[in-house]
């Protein structure tokens, strides 16, 4: 049995549609990488000649704005794929992918992926659904940025981080973002983000200890985010 057949995370992506022979082909051509925290998987403007499957760890997808600020568009967790949109459109990457913690990723060359695409209808459909899901998330994010206040966006983001990535044993959010990164997610200045976190802390909504954030009153945050 190939390592790709044994890999659990592929069940969470388009790769679950691949048959045994296709998985063996993928196992023979893929390359595994260890990406250290803070290192890029790929950068904006780079040619991505294949797709990356996230086996372990979390990364951020971000875009550098005209004023030099890093706008975080999405956080990517194990089981998700990166680079499929650029690969299919045959365009350079529109976003940068940077590790937020040590990661293990597998790279599958474009030639192999397109072979699966042409010969496996379910794989093609799964990948199209995945890209459509990304577009829906982008639409929702754009509406949130346009219609919600910074305070509402911060509440929404803290809930998203807990619901999506879980908590540590001490109750703190598993994924620890810097204040600058958190500000980049909600589209505000770092100083404004720090001020709002302090306000949430004083109001008893959260508890702050260094970079650690513990959500104390989830219901109030939900009402604030709506």
TrEMBL record:
Recorded GO CC terms: cytosol
Signal peptide: none
Gene3D superfamilies the UniProt entry points to: Jelly Rolls, Winged helix-like DNA-binding domain superfamily/Winged helix DNA-binding domain
Protein name: CRP-like cAMP-binding protein
Coiled coil spans: none
Top-level taxon in the UniProt lineage: Bacteria
GO molecular function list: DNA binding; DNA-binding transcription factor activity
Organism per entry: Flavobacterium lacus
Pfam families: cNMP_binding, HTH_Crp_2
Domain HTH crp-type stretches: 148-219
PROSITE patterns according to UniProt: CNMP_BINDING_3 (PS50042), HTH_CRP_2 (PS51063)
PANTHER family xrefs: CRP FAMILY TRANSCRIPTIONAL REGULATORY PROTEIN, HTH-TYPE TRANSCRIPTIONAL REGULATOR ARCR
Keywords from the UniProt entry: DNA-binding, Transcription, Transcription regulation
Keyword Translocase: no
Domain Cyclic nucleotide-binding, residue spans: 14-110
The keyword 4Fe-4S is annotated on this UniProt entry: no
Record InterPro entries: cNMP-bd_dom (IPR000595), cNMP-bd_dom_sf (IPR018490), Env_Response_Regulators (IPR050397), HTH_CRP (IPR012318), RmlC-like_jellyroll (IPR014710), WH-like_DNA-bd_sf (IPR036388), WH_DNA-bd_sf (IPR036390)
């Amino acid at each position: 049995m190939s390592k790709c057949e044994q890999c659990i995370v592929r069940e969470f992506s388009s790769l679950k549609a691949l048959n045994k022979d296709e998985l063996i082909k993928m196992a023979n051509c893929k390359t595994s990488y260890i990406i250290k925290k803070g290192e890029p998987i790929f950068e904006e403007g780079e040619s991505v000649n294949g797709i990356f499957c996230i086996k372990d760890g979390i990364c951020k997808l971000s875009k550098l704005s005209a004023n030099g600020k890093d706008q975080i568009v999405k956080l990517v967790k194990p089981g998700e794929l990166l680079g499929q949109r650029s690969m299919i459109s045959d365009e350079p990457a529109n976003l940068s992918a940077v590790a937020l913690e040590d990661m293990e990723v597998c790279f599958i060359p474009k030639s192999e992926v397109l072979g699966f695409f042409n010969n496996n209808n379910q794989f093609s459909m799964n990948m199209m659904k995945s890209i459509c899901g990304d577009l829906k998330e982008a639409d929702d994010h754009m509406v949130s940025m346009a219609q919600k206040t910074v305070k509402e966006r911060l509440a929404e983001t803290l809930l998203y981080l807990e619901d999506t990535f879980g908590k540590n044993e001490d109750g703190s959010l598993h994924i620890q973002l810097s204040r600058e990164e958190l500000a980049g997610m909600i589209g505000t200045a770092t100083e404004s983000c720090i001020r709002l976190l302090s306000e949430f802390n004083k109001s008893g909504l959260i508890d702050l200890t260094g970079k650690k954030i513990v959500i104390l009153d989830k219901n109030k945050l939900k009402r604030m985010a709506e």
